[in-house]
Design brief:
410 residues, Beta-galactosidase, Chain A, domain 5
């Protein structure tokens, strides 16, 4: 079932072709939505406020994924139990319903959004040349923030979006590119094959794979010396007081040196536990902090478990251990191609007491894309949510991560 009209499709195509942001929404009071909103609640809200809403759905109607062409083909939320089931994506209801857009960045939410890197450094696309790297100068490019994408194709189980754009990095390099983003609904058998494990019949799930590509449509090759782009996927999820992110890694010598834990100051030891081959990061939405893993140790898996709601979230990125990754630190960099492949962020109050969320994020990036004229770089990622009997969930987590949920809960 597709939740858009041909009138809406024409509108989005015209808006995208003119390279203009989506028309500002009418001045409406934000709907009253509670933290425990069902998927049906969120579906109704998004259809009322966001152009080009598309719903992917399994044959039995239990697994549903809600997309938005008006927000760059973003996965807004999903459910494993139909309209009455839990809604897994974090949504910024007030901002989505607001009549005006923010100038620097619009954190609408959504459990997978398409971005591009790097964020900081001499090849940043978020800062203008010669500007200092501080929040006052930071600007998210409209093509990954406010602009609509064209709906190329949509069925009950997949959708494809596109967008052409031009970007200029901190060093003055101009990138002309075409973005293609496809989302495909997965069933339990698909996921079991991807994970190479069994999933118990009493576990409900929703999952999807996104295929993201950028093509160099300019007249020049993209080179390391002038800066490269990467595909950056970020998922925003609703936390609970009992949410823990678990990320396995290769236990090589000095493995901890390949884990960054000081993006916003060093993460306190009671919030980040690094064991021999798995790290545990508290993501309760109460303390602003972020971690990152180098491709030298990262494995293609990151997980979050909500003990309060008994939900396992899995993010399955693509990892290329020997490839360069863009560095997004806000500074002129000595090593601009030694960045992270997997990140996790826990939202929390700022110094002035305000807070964007609460939410937590699991992020991943493609390698730096050194594309010749006409060449395309592609990046894939799977996101899924599973819930069911705790005993079955414990067994699944043990199979995937080699850890005991009982030990983590303690």
């Amino acid at each position: 079932m597709r939740v858009f009209t041909w009138v809406g499709l024409v509108f989005l195509s015209i808006a995208a072709a003119c390279n203009n942001p989506v028309k500002k929404m009418e001045d409406k009071k934000p709907d009253v939505i509670h933290n425990n909103a069902t998927y049906g609640d969120d579906l109704k809200f998004i259809k009322a406020h966001v152009p080009g809403a598309i719903e992917l759905m399994s044959a039995d109607g239990s697994s549903k994924v809600l997309l938005a062409a008006g927000y760059q083909g973003r996965v807004m939320t999903s459910t494993a139990a139909g309209d009455s089931g839990a809604s897994f994506g974090w949504l910024n209801y007030n901002l989505i319903a607001a009549p005006e857009k923010k100038k620097q960045f619009n954190p609408y939410g959504g459990e997978e959004r398409f971005w591009l890197g790097p964020e900081g450094g001499q090849y940043s696309i978020y800062f203008k040349g010669k500007d200092s790297f501080n929040i006052a100068n930071w600007q998210v490019p409209p093509v990954i923030d406010t602009e609509a994408y064209i709906i190329e194709k949509a069925t009950d189980t997949s959708a494809t979006f596109s967008k052409k754009t031009q970007l200029t990095n901190y060093s003055g390099t101009v990138f002309n590119l075409n973005i293609i983003r496809s989302i495909h609904l997965l069933d339990k058998a698909d996921l079991a094959r991807k994970l190479q494990t069994n999933i118990s019949e009493d576990i409900s799930m929703v999952g999807y794979e996104t295929v993201n590509s950028i093509t160099n449509i300019g007249e020049s090759d993209w080179t390391k010396e002038k800066g490269l782009l990467s595909i950056w996927l970020l998922g925003m999820f609703t936390p609970s007081p009992e949410t823990v992110v678990m990320i396995p890694f290769s236990p090589i010598e000095n493995a901890k040196s390949y884990i960054t834990d000081n993006y916003f100051g060093t993460v306190p030891p009671d919030r980040l536990h690094v064991k021999d081959s798995v790290l545990f990061f508290t993501c309760d939405g109460k303390y602003r902090s972020k971690i990152g893993l180098s491709p030298a140790i990262a494995k293609p898996l990151a997980a979050g478990f909500d003990f309060e709601k008994n939900v396992l979230t899995l993010v399955i990125p693509t990892v290329h251990k020997n490839s360069p990754y863009v560095n997004s630190k806000w500074e002129l960099q000595k090593e601009p191609y030694k960045g992270d492949v997997i990140n996790s962020y826990n939202d929390g109050p700022l110094a002035d007491g305000t807070q964007m969320g609460p939410f937590f994020e699991i992020e991943s990036s493609s390698p730096a894309l050194e594309l010749k004229k006409g060449q395309t770089g592609e990046y894939r990622q799977i996101t899924c949510h599973l819930t069911g009997d705790y005993k079955s969930m414990k067994q699944l987590v043990s199979q995937l991560l080699g850890v005991n949920l009982d030990d983590i809960k303690k």
